[in-house]
Amino acid sequence: MRYAHPGTEGAIVNFKERYGNYIGGEFVAPVKGQYFTNTSPVNGKPIAEFPRSTAEDIDKALSLVLLKIADRIEANLEVLAITETWDNGKAIRETLNADIPLAADHFRYFAGVLRAQEGSAAEIDGNTVAYHI
């Protein structure tokens, strides 16, 4: 049996010309807009362009994952609070109103921190430098 080349009549497989990063349930362009061409060893022709992703793309994806975790925690607040109470013996009022909501807040906080990564350095004297990451 002979298979038709992708993109030709009768082909079982077809490719788009360009793909994006799959982030947050959709394909999006890479942050820096860079792509690489994947070439087929069968005929030496381009298959498609794919994102040349960078740390910024990873941070974007990770931020969305952390936000999704926070959403899931909030959607299951009562079950998680009761489970936490049975697991550690804390009063339900603490797990329901503090522990579990704060866990969701922490995920949201760190999702934002990824986007606002910053640091600084300062020369204290001729022999000392302080830096913050």
From TrEMBL:
Example GO molecular function: oxidoreductase activity
One matching Pfam family: Aldedh
Keyword Oxidoreductase belongs to the record: yes
Keywords: Oxidoreductase
Keyword Oxidoreductase: yes
Record-annotated membrane-spanning stretches: none
Start and end residues of each Aldehyde dehydrogenase domain: 36-129
Native organism: Pseudomonas syringae pv. actinidiae ICMP 19096
InterPro entries on file: Ald_DH/histidinol_DH, Ald_DH_N, Aldehyde_DH_dom
Protein name per Swiss-Prot or TrEMBL: Aldehyde dehydrogenase family protein
